[in-house]
C-alpha cells in the first residue's frame, strides 16, 4: 500500500521489521547453532583433558587396592580403572616393610617449618620493600627478583658443600633454612602490599604504631588471600622436593617421603601394589590441602596480580 501524501505514516515496530526480514532470522538461528556447537566442543575438549590429567591418579588409587599381580597386568586396558578384589593389604604391607610414619612426619615437619618461617620472613621483607623508605632499597629489590631465574640445580652443589662444612648434613636444619627466604614469595607479597591503601598505615602511624606493629596489626589481617596463596604454593613445592633431600638426607631419621618412595620402589621384592599405596599416601595431603584452600588460592592469585 502506497503512503498518502500529507498524512502522518505509522512506522512499523521492531517486531514487525524483524518478522519481515527472514534473512535476519536465518542469520540469528545460524549464530545460535554455532554457539551451541562451540560450547559442546569446548566441554568435550575440557572433559578429555580432565580425564587425561586424572587418569594417572585414578590408576594409582585403584591399583593401590588391587592384588599385586593384577596391577600391571591390566594396565593396558580399561580394567586398570576397575577395582578387582579390593583390599587394604597393600597399605598394611607399606607400614610393615618400611617406617612410613617416620618418613611422613619428616615431610610434615620440614614442609611445615618452611611454610611458617617463610611466611614470616618473606612477608616482612616484601613489606619493607613496598612500604618503607631506606637506602639501597631500589637496588636490592631488583637483585632479589633476578634470583628467580636461577634454577636450584645451579647452586645445589655449592650449597651441599656449605652445609657439609657447617656440619649440617643429614639434619632437619639443612633441609629447612635454605628454603625459608624465597624470591618468588617476596614478589607475590610485594605485588599485594604495593596496592594496599596507604591510609591504613597513616591512621596507625597517627595512633603511635611503629612499622612492626603496623605490619602485624594492620597489614597482616587484610592480607589473608596472599598469605594463603604463598602458603599453598610453598607447601606444594616443598612437599614434592626430591633433589636436595636426596643429596643431604643420608639416614632414615631425616628422610622425607619423596626420597623414601624412590628407595621403596627398588626395595626387593618389588611389589607394585605396595608402591601404589605408598604413592597414594604421599599424594593425599597435597590434594587435601589444595581442595580445602583452593578458594583462598584463586582469590590470592587474582589479588596478587598474577595473570595466566
TrEMBL record:
Keyword Membrane part of the UniProt annotation: yes
Domain ABC transmembrane type-1, residue spans: 104-293
InterPro entries assigned: MetI-like, MetI-like_sf
Sorted UniProt keywords: Cell membrane, Membrane, Transmembrane, Transmembrane helix, Transport
Gene Ontology cellular-component terms listed: plasma membrane
Gene Ontology BP, a term: transmembrane transport
Topology class, membrane: Multi-pass membrane protein
Superkingdom assignment: Bacteria
Pfam family, one: BPD_transp_1
Cellular compartment(s): Cell membrane
Main location: membrane
Protein name: Carbohydrate ABC transporter membrane protein 2, CUT1 family
Family of the protein in this entry: Belongs to the binding-protein-dependent transport system permease family.
Transmembrane segments: 40-62, 103-127, 139-161, 176-196, 226-250, 270-293
Organism whose genome encodes this protein: Oscillatoria acuminata PCC 6304
